Structures are given as structure tokens and as C-alpha cells.
Amino acid sequence: MTDADDRLWAAVTEPGRRGLLDVLLARGEATPTALAAELPFTRQAVSKHLAVLLGAGLITRQREGREVRYAVEPDRLHDATQAMITAANRWDARLNAIKGLAESLHRADPGSEHHRAPPPR
């Protein structure tokens, strides 16, 4: 995994940042003040979350006079989605392998102590 991947995962694992991304997706773009009005964070907390998202490449910023407006970076969001799909597929394969192993062990010895319910107390 690369540093960019680590930054991406760190950015999207925090629920507040995912909420911030949702608001940006719905609005198209917004200032930190507008985001703070829609989220249960202070403007300072919004700014910190924006910095992490910016560092992960998930958003862009553009200065308009005294204001800075943020928007989602669609290509990077697509990359993030694909990375999550790939990770989910790997976990599904691992879990299916574990399930298959457990089922084959059960078929090989269905009466073993490992498969019996514990005695009542």
C-alpha cells in the first residue's frame, strides 16, 4: 500500500469526514462556514477534516475573493470507491475460504466435540 492509499483510508474511515463528503456531494461545493452550519462540528473542526480530505486528494479547493470553496474530486472519489470494492472482494474471498474449511471439517467429523452444543449449566 502506498502513502496515498494510507491517506485515503485514513480520510474515509472517520464518520465525520464521510458526512462532510456527503454534504459536499449534495451541494456541489461549499465554504467551511456553510459546512459547519450543516454538520455537528465547529468551523475549526470542519477545517481540520477538510485538510485531511484535501491531503487524500478527495476534495479540491478554490479561492473566490476572501472565501475558499471546497468540492469533491470525482476521479479520486472513484479511485476510493474502487479501492473499497477491491478490499471488500478480498475479504469476501477470505471469509468464503474460512466457511469452506469449516464446512469440510464438519462433513469429515460431524460428531466431534467441536460441533456439539455445550451441556446446560
UniProtKB/TrEMBL annotation:
InterPro entries: ArsR-like_HTH (IPR011991), HTH_ArsR_DNA-bd_dom (IPR001845), WH-like_DNA-bd_sf (IPR036388), WH_DNA-bd_sf (IPR036390)
Gene3D superfamilies: Winged helix-like DNA-binding domain superfamily/Winged helix DNA-binding domain
HTH arsR-type domain sequence ranges: 1-92
SMART domains, sorted: HTH_ARSR (SM00418)
Pfam families referenced in this protein's UniProt entry, alphabetically: HTH_20 (PF12840)
Top-level taxon: Bacteria
Matches recorded under SUPFAM superfamilies: Winged helix' DNA-binding domain (SSF46785)
Name of the protein this chain belongs to: Metalloregulator ArsR/SmtB family transcription factor
Protein source organism: Actinomycetospora endophytica
Species classification: Bacteria, Bacillati, Actinomycetota, Actinomycetes, Pseudonocardiales
